[in-house]
Amino acid sequence: MNYQQIFSEIFEDLKGVDNIGKVADYIPELANVDPNHFGVNLTTIEGDAYDYGDANIRFSIQSIAKVFSFVLAYSRIKSDIWLRMDLEPAGTPFNSLVQLEYDKGVPRNPFVNAGGIVVCDILVSELENPKSDMLNFIRTLSDNRDINYNSKVSESERLSGYKNYALVNLMKSFGNIHNDIDEVMDLYFSICSIEMSCRELSESFLFLSNNGIVPYSGEQILSSSRTKRTNALMQTCGFYDEAGQFTFKVGLPGKSGVGGGIVAIHPQKYAISVWSPRLNVKGNSFLGMLFLEEFTTRTELSIF
Ligand code: GLU
Q1: Can you list the domains of the chain with their CATH numbers?
Q2: Structure pTM?
Q3: Fewer Cβ atoms within 10 A, N terminus or C terminus of the chain?
Q4: 257 CB near ligand 1 (under 6 Å)
């Protein structure tokens, strides 16, 4: 299939759409991005890569990093992580406090902020050097040694992260945070600040299309059963309270972030990443959602 041509046809067709999305500015440092960036990459499990637009410019991956931290915990940690969080769609905004009180400090899933924070708490308990271990893990997945944290972004979020501090304090009050809050939040804000390009994101998600095996190295990251479960979680919980819409319109498991990135995978076939910083009201990339909907419709390459 000529993906490059399909990308440019979809891009041309979407030019007429009024991009009503807005760049995330609740983390002040994120507001500095040029809102008109647009990039796409598709990489197949055979290693064929197709770029379009700003596919090789790095951006803040934000909540997409929750997949990496979850997989690291799920693959290496012996304790039962499902005692600490649930695996159901939240149906509430990504940083909502409402459900947490009803559920006595247990987040709905690992991909809402509260769940991502509990995963960080687990990693702080179980890893010797959580920050460098996390970075090394992502570098291994993408075979790229210079992927890094952006300390300006993490510091900007630390200074403005009142909701996230409210979440962690509420969970601590219920006994679901075991470590020092500042240490946990340092890891959380750091992983959100990681910068990667569309191409690097596709490469690093390919193991989820390939039964848990990194195609280029042959390393088994997750068993195929846990890979299936991780993909199921992305399908049901990867897009805040728009996971149903994403499933309905795009039909792939994936994860978005407020930096405007979306990664989605097709088992046994490919990983695709899109970046467009303007977000819709639910916090997902406005153009990214439309682009992926057109992509799976025209290529008939959704999982449904
Ligand atoms: N660092 C962001 C936050 O905690 C991540 C949100 C997101 O990308 O969904 O608010």
Answers
A1: 3-299 (3.40.710.10)
A2: 0.97
A3: C
A4: yes
